[in-house]
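Q: What does the assembled structure look like for these inputs?
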Amino acid sequence: MSTFTRGFRGRRRGEDDRLPPGQYLAEDFPVLSAGPTPHVPLDRWEFTIDTEAGQTHRWTWRELTALPYEEPAVDIHCVTSWSKLGTTWRGVSLDVLFEDVETTADYALVHSYGGYTTNLPLDDLLDGKAWIAYRYEGEDLTPSHGGPARLLVPHLYFWKSAKWVRGIRLLTEDWPGFWETAGYHNYGDPWREQRYADD
Amino acid sequence: MQTDHLDGNALAGPLAEIFTADVSAAVSRCATCGLTGPVAALRVYDRAPGLVARCPGCEEVVLRLVRGPDAAWLDLRGAVSLRIPLGGANPGAVATDGGAAGGG
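A:
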């Protein structure tokens, strides 16, 4: 994510090169939400992975935050056209959470406290591409930005990085989520500007 | 606390692009809890990739509207029905159309 090559004109890869087409650089961190902010007490919080075979893997808050964490520094891109570069997070890699999960499913449906859903191929959650993030810029993740924990999948438009994440259902068939059933692109690659279903 | 939503009057402009009638003046029935009330009283979350109108009773989604560059997507699954006030109807024409549809 942070390995850049020099362009053929010999200049260091700069901010312009890190902005996908149609995006502008935001200095603040806009709060987007499709509904009221859920407030989930940590002693009642849990994260689950449900497999296509009906097996449930479950983590409490204490269990999740006791797992080995990473501190990714990533660029994020919202479909409403703002991008932020070099944001820093702390979270547990999905690779860690999937270590003991047996599945042949190709698809994941992420669901959140408050009812939000978003879908993506399971491959896009693995191999160092996604985290359950619970700290942002050195602070606990606030509820307005998805705290206590949100999915972080920075290589896709940010609506895929579900706030208030509650779990992942593994599916053998793709199941479009909240925005994917309302005109937004099923995959959402910012570098291919996959904003709407027709793109 | 700072409000995070608007009222349903915020839907009037965007829906006027699609419907000739003023849908914000309609009465909707929530598909989740059955609450009936004016569309203008829905809670509209607009700081989002689209407009999300929620029931003031149960907070479930009643209506979603996404406006792309050359199309709009409208989801009304959360509404059992909309009662849209209209003037000058011709009931005979409606009955004739309904009969034809039922017989097909």
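The two ends of chain A are 25 Å apart (CA to CA).
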